[in-house]
Amino acid sequence: MRPPGTVLVTGGTGTLGRAVVAALRERGEAPRVVSRRQGAGLTTADLRTGVGLAAALDGVDTVFHLATNNRDDLDISRGLLDAARASGTPPRLVYISIVGVDDIPLPYYRGKLAVERAIEGSGLPFAILRATQFHPFIERLFTTQRALPVLFAPNFSAQPIAVEEVAGRLIELADAGSTGRAADIGGPEVLSLRELALQYRAARGGRRPVAPLALPGATVRAYRAGHNLVPGPPFGRQRFGEYLASRFGIHGA
């Protein structure tokens, strides 16, 4: 266990960040949670401008870099790297990335890959973990279609993983002092989006037909080729149906 105030979490109010912060606090740690807002349990700093970063990093030996905004991840990461290098004792960075960022041509994925490379060239000690999509992300794919008469399922597969399991793995890497890119992790099952949609429909008690959705383009081809999946024994344990059951309080989802 690290002393109070020596762990900093960027993106600590996001989906993964909340899970990491909760896991750290559960075992008695007191992480600094970076936010542009002021409030209880928050350390005010701005990753875009760098304002407050030096103070936020003072005395920190581990940074969980989980912040993302889908637009300028590289810019906010460069600011963090610059501030970390300038600190008295440069901290270890533990960064979350996504399986397939080097093969799936989404602009967001390209940004994540660029951050990976910036961290690798930063001169700081680091660990990088790539994970498959989280259960809540898959749920949102279907929730955003709630006004449609049909539930569409793109024609590729996914390997969703529990957020809490990813958070636990990040903390394990920090505890072990792991360096470099860790082995990718994914959920316990690979299912087609149709199968996942049917589980979602059952959990919500819906009756809408599930229809295939054939999409063109290099991104979908990369997904259909399985670049978003992790081969070999699975890391995660919680299945998507189990997540839905806990989410909606319905057994047999």
- The count of DSSP E runs of length 2 or more, i.e. the number of strands, is 11
**What is the CATH class?**
Alpha Beta
- Oligomer state of the chains in this structure: single chain
Question: Which sequence of SSEs, written as H and E, runs from N to C?
Answer: EHEEHEHEHEHEEHEEHEHH
The Rg value, from CA coordinates, equals 19 Å
CATH architecture: 3-Layer(aba) Sandwich
- Please tell me what the overall shape is: globular
Can you tell me the CATH superfamily?
NAD(P)-binding Rossmann-like Domain
Low-confidence stretches: none
Mean pLDDT: 94
- Which strands sit side by side, in order, in the main sheet? 3-2-1-4-5-6-9
Count helical runs: 9
Strand content: 15-25%
Briefly note the CATH topology name.
Answer: Rossmann fold
Secondary-structure-derived class? alpha/beta
Distance between the termini: 38 Å
| Tally of individual domains | 1
Helix content: 25-40%
**Sheet of most strands:** 7 strands, parallel
Protein name: NmrA-like domain-containing protein
GO molecular function, one term: protein-containing complex binding
InterPro entries: ComplexI_NDUFA9_subunit (IPR051207), NAD(P)-bd_dom_sf (IPR036291), NmrA-like (IPR008030)
Pfam family, one: NmrA
